């Protein structure tokens, strides 16, 4: 069984990857693939009993993640990448609280 911390780190790593790939048009399929995988991780983690310390972070992240999913094709790619990388860093640093 994968721990909540490891699930959060998986999400973080995927966001860091796609933040780089979004800037390369040839990587669109990989971005889509990893965003779908990340969505599955988010959905799984939403069903878990998260710590009270981590819940506010995760709830805010879920709202922002929906925006990242929706805007990945239309947003300014550099701004989108910055948001994704910012959340990757936040989740990485707070994963121990999950």
Describe this structure in words.
It is built from four helices and no strands. The protein is an all-alpha fold and 98 residues long. It has one domain. The radius of gyration is 13 Å and the shape is elongated. The mean pLDDT is 96.
Summarize it:
This protein is an all-alpha fold and about 100 residues long.
Distance between the termini: 15 Å
> What is the N-to-C order of secondary-structure elements (H for helix, E for strand)?
HHHH
Uncertain spans, ≥5 residues at pLDDT below 50?
none
**Biggest pleated-sheet summary:** none
The helix-and-strand class reads: mainly alpha
Taken as a percent bin, the fraction of beta residues is under 5%
Please count the helical segments: 4
Helix fraction, binned, reads over 70%
Average pLDDT, all residues: 96
List keywords for this structure.
98 residues, single chain, 4 helices, mainly alpha
Give the topology.
Elements: H1 4-21, H2 28-46, H3 55-71, H4 77-94
Helix pairs in contact: 1-2, 1-4, 3-4
